[in-house]
Design a protein that fits this description.
Shape: elongated
Radius of gyration: 31 Å
Number of strands: 12
Helix content: 40-55%
Number of helices: 19
């Protein structure tokens, strides 16, 4: 059997869009599921718009998502000689021809076609002319001879059988007058030379497939299987845009989403397997195939993504989350990032991650662990610290100072004994204590919070409130 080979072939002209990221994921999972190879090709032939920064964004985004190619990435710009070679071979076989049309002539063709309510296409002016008529020394483009009769059929693994009348296809340029290959030509040569067996991409490329098929057939090459994925729309059904929210992988990363959560969500966006919702990478590889991909466009559901991220946050390794949060805390004013902060954060992470849906929320909730007295207080926290609450805070601080140790269990016991002895509800003791040591009204359990801070820091913070 032929080894399945898929590819992700982005243009480095901007951000790694979420639709492209999903295409990369589907190509990767399909190859892994079938024991094949997943390849990466950077389509950087547009030298004016392609940037190294955009290339880095693609590499970084894919690495963050855990999508790694099985071979060294191919840069399309390094293969121009090969693209030219194939174009000249088609020219030599009489399956392509030189077109000497000037920009003015092409413009007139478009205007004439539109005036007759026809698509603005090239009219084949140089297709059958004698080469001796060519203007001496004039620049020319190379155009492929499109079939004029019948129709072209593509059996798409997602869309089903799709047909186009050949009369709708014009003699497209494969080599520009400056000697550079066009996208439509280069992509075919590269897919053939890379032995790509399955082209899985967005259905905005479906019309390209019929044009690209002309080159495959003219060269006598076997066509790969095609699978065109429905696009991702915004929640309102319109094309995904900035007004809907984040659109690129980098934006989702900056907003505190975990890569496994984003991949999990993207997988379920257009592909399904029963009621399965939370799937590990191993499960994804085991279950994914193209027969589970739907034909209808998917709608981005940011609330659902947030829910899935919260699930993955609770499952995530505490050390890893601690490192992620510490990195984010470096940019927060007034927060020290050192070994002490790390120790506190790691100790409290089991409780913190239960209360956060994103790394951004987790970072906000953890800031108090790296702050120095006097702490900043929220308005709600300030209102809690009434004269009566301060009396309670003074009393419990004395008991905590005298506690035999400072474990969560001992702290819990100390708080309960104090509340019972003084005739208070436990919340009347815990809430002013929480406000004093965190500057807010919410945190993980007060016993775990105080244990993470340690006795000296806890008493320094309550003392700053009582005597500051």
């Amino acid at each position: 059997m032929t080894t399945i080979r898929t590819r992700f072939a982005p243009s480095p002209t901007g951000l790694l869009h979420i639709g492209n990221a999903r295409a990369a994921l589907f190509n990767f999972l399909f190859a892994r599921h079938h024991g094949g190879k997943f390849l990466l090709r950077i389509e950087d032939t547009d030298r004016e718009r392609s940037t190294q920064k955009a290339v880095d964004v693609i590499f970084d985004g894919l690495a963050w998502m855990g999508i790694t190619p099985d071979e060294e990435p191919v840069f399309q710009s390094t293969r121009q000689a090969r693209h030219t070679e194939v174009a000249l071979e088609l020219l030599e076989k009489g399956l392509a021809y030189k077109c000497y049309c000037t920009p003015e002539e092409l413009k007139q063709m478009r205007e004439d076609a539109m005036a007759q309510s026809k698509p603005p296409r090239y009219n084949g002016m140089w297709r059958d002319r004698d080469p001796s008529e060519a203007p001496e020394g004039a620049p020319y483009a190379v155009r492929i001879k499109a079939p004029r009769e019948g129709e072209t059929t593509i059996t798409d693994l997602v869309q089903g059988e799709v047909r186009v009348a050949n009369a709708e296809l014009d003699d497209m340029i494969i080599l520009r007058s400056d000697g550079t290959p066009t996208y439509q030509h280069a992509v075919v040569v590269d897919d053939h030379d890379m032995n790509i067996t399955h082209v899985i991409r967005g259905d905005d490329h479906l019309t390209n497939t019929f044009r690209q098929a002309m080159i495959y057939r003219a060269m006598g090459w076997e066509l790969p299987e095609f699978a065109h994925l429905p696009l991702i729309h915004g929640p309102d059904g319109a094309k995904l845009s900035k007004r809907h929210g984040a659109q690129s992988v980098v934006e989702f990363r900056d907003m505190g989403y975990l890569p496994e959560a984003l991949c999990n969500y993207l997988l379920r966006l257009g592909w399904g397997h029963g009621d399965a919702e939370i799937l590990s990478r191993e499960e994804q590889i085991k279950l994914f195939d193209l027969d589970g991909v739907g034909r209808a466009p998917s709608r981005m559901d940011y609330a659902k993504l947030l829910h899935i991220n919260a699930v993955w946050m609770r499952q995530a390794d505490d050390e890893r989350l601690t490192d992620d949060v510490l990195e984010r805390l470096k940019s927060v004013d007034g927060v020290q990032v050192n070994d002490t902060t790390r120790t506190r954060l790691l100790a409290l992470m089991p409780g913190l991650k239960e209360r956060a849906r994103t790394l951004v929320e987790l970072t906000e909730n953890a800031q108090f662990l790296g702050r120095q007295v006097p702490l900043p207080f929220t308005e709600k926290a300030k209102k809690l610290l009434t004269p009566e609450a301060l009396q309670i805070l003074d009393g419990i601080s004395r008991d905590l100072a005298a506690a035999p140790d400072f474990t969560a269990e001992t702290i819990d016991s100390t708080l309960r004994q104090f509340a019972e002895r003084e005739g208070h509800k436990l919340g009347q003791v815990a809430q002013p204590l929480r406000a004093a040591v965190t500057g807010s009204t919410s945190s993980p359990g007060i016993d775990a919070t105080l244990a993470a801070l340690g006795r000296d820091e806890t008493l320094a913070r309550t003392g700053a409130v009582l005597h500051g």
